Amino acid sequence: MVLRIGTRGSKLALAQSEWVKKRIEGRHPHAQVQLVRIKTTGDKILDSPLAKIGGKGLFVKEIEEALLNKRVDLAVHSMKDVPAALPEGLILTTFPKREDPHDAFVSIDCPNLGQLPRGSRVGTGSLRRAAQLLHIRPDLELLPLRGNVDTRLRKLEAGNFQAIILAAAGMRRLGFEDRISQLLSTEQILPAIGQGALGLEVRHDDEETIGLIDFLNDEETQVTVEAERAFLKELQGGCQVPIAAFSRLNGGRLDLEGMVAELDGSKVIRDRITGARNKAEDMGIRLARRLLASGADEILERIYGKA
Predict the structure, then answer these.
(1) Does residue 73 carry a catalytic annotation?
(2) CATH class held by domain 103-184
(3) Among residues 81, 100, 103, 206, which one is catalytic?
C-alpha cells in the first residue's frame, strides 16, 4: 500500500515527517510511505508577524484541505500550530512521545536570560514569549523574528539581536542542541499549548491509516495535550493573544498550569489545577474559566477588540 504524508516544506517539518515515515516503514514493511510537501499560508508570508496575518491554522489549513481532498492520507503537525477546532471530517488520533516542551534562550555572548544586559535586543515571533519576557524583563527591546530555525540563527549571528527565543524541541530535532544557551523554566516562560508534541491527523473514516499509525501513540503525551487544548478551546485563543498552558502527569494525577497576559507583559494572570488523569478535558475547561473569572476575560476582550 501507498501512504502519503502531507507536510510543510521547512527543514524542521520534513525532519519530523521523516521520523514518522521511518517508523511506519519499520513497523509495516509492506507500506510505501511518501512525503508530499505542501506550502501553507504561514510559509508564504514571512515579512509580517503571525499576529498581524490573523486567522487560525496558518501552518495547517492547506494540509488539512489536502487531507479532505484525499491528496494525502496523513498529516504530521507540530501541535502548537494546530487550532483548537478541527475541520469536520478530520481527527487527531496519534501523539508520539513529546520532545522537550521548554523554550530555549539562544545567545552568542550571554549564558542566560538573567545576565542579558539592559536594553538588549531579543528576537521572537511569538506574542506569548514576548509578553512573558517583558513581564520579567521590561528593560528588554523585543523585536519580531520570523523564518525557519536556520534563518533565525543566522540573524542572531549577523548581530541583529543579542538573543533569540526558540522552541527547544525544534532545536533538538534539527541537531542544534549545542546552540542552546539556557533552557527557560516553565516558571519563567510557560510554553505554548502542545509545544514539543507532534500530532498525526487523518480522515475520521480512514480506519486503515488509523490502524497503521496507532503504535506511535504515547498515552502521556495524548493526555497532557488534551488538557492544554481544552484550555485553549475554552478561551477561543489564537496567535493574536498571549496564551500558554503546560500539563504534566505525576502518577495518576494530572497537573495543568495556564496563563493569559497583556501584550506588553504588564499583567499576567496565571493559575494551576490538579486532577485525575482521566479528566484532562474537564480540567482544561475549568482552568480556563478560573482565569476568565480572575480578569483574563478583560484582557481577551481588549485584545480581540483591537484585532
Answers:
(1) no
(2) alpha beta
(3) 81
